[in-house]
User: Which sequence fits this backbone?
């Protein structure tokens, strides 16, 4: 035999790419998480809370977009099925936000989990990181690997709606108050979220469909913002109850 058969070569390629994918997910999740958590700490502590950087450090949009970005990076250039890509992107996105949470709230910042309620914040945001990071990372992998423009556009619209809905929620409850800078940041975030399907457009032929999907993002963002508010209020009440029960 002059060499291995084609099936053997394919199996070897699959094993090699599988190992590379695992390494990408592990390294990408850790590096992205450390960078994101460190940036949020730096922006929140060294910048004026009314500056653009300080405001962004308190929002979830950078976390959503970071998970989306690493979800796409870990599967870029690999020949894997869409299902494997979505799973890998989801794990990478979740891992990145979990690491960022511990850098921002956990022992890396406080030296322990007993400072200023950091234990409840860490646990709560860890759960949120699994959900938000997993979904954002999976959507990114689907967007990048999907051969069909419709599915890729829907994935981009999903993350765009998530970004816009957070800002819509804060605008609805009046988080900006009388601060013009905060109001402008939130309005800009809504615009960025609604523009995401166009920014991530992969096929010009899908432009008419993208317009239709982008229009649905507007009511979807408002509805999601309302849901965010309900979940936030419920979570806040549960958090206060747990804090009173455990800490007195």
Assistant:
């Amino acid at each position: 035999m002059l060499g291995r058969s084609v099936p053997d070569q394919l199996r070897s390629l699959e094993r090699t790419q599988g190992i590379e994918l695992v390494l990408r997910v592990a390294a990408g999740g850790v590096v992205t998480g450390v960078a994101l958590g460190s940036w949020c700490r730096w922006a929140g502590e060294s910048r004026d809370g009314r500056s653009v950087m300080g405001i962004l450090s308190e929002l979830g949009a950078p976390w959503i977009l970071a998970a989306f970005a690493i979800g796409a990076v870990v599967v870029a250039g690999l020949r894997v099925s869409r299902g494997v890509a979505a799973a890998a992107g989801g794990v990478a996105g979740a891992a990145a936000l979990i690491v960022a949470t511990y850098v921002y709230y956990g022992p890396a910042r406080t030296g322990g989990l007993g400072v200023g309620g950091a234990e409840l914040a860490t646990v709560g945001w860890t759960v949120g990181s699994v959900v938000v990071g997993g979904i954002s990372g999976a959507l990114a992998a689907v967007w990048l690997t999907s051969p069909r423009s419709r599915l890729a556009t829907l994935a981009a619209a999903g993350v765009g709606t998530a970004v816009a809905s957070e800002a819509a929620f804060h605008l609805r409850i009046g988080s900006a108050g009388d601060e013009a800078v905060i109001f402008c940041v939130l309005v800009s975030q809504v615009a960025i979220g609604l523009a995401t399907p166009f920014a991530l457009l992969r096929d010009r032929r899908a432009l008419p469909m993208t317009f239709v999907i982008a229009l649905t993002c507007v009511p979807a963002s408002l509805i999601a913002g309302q849901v965010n508010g309900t979940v936030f209020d419920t979570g806040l009440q549960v958090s206060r109850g747990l804090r009173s029960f455990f800490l007195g």
Summary: The chain has a mean pLDDT of 77.
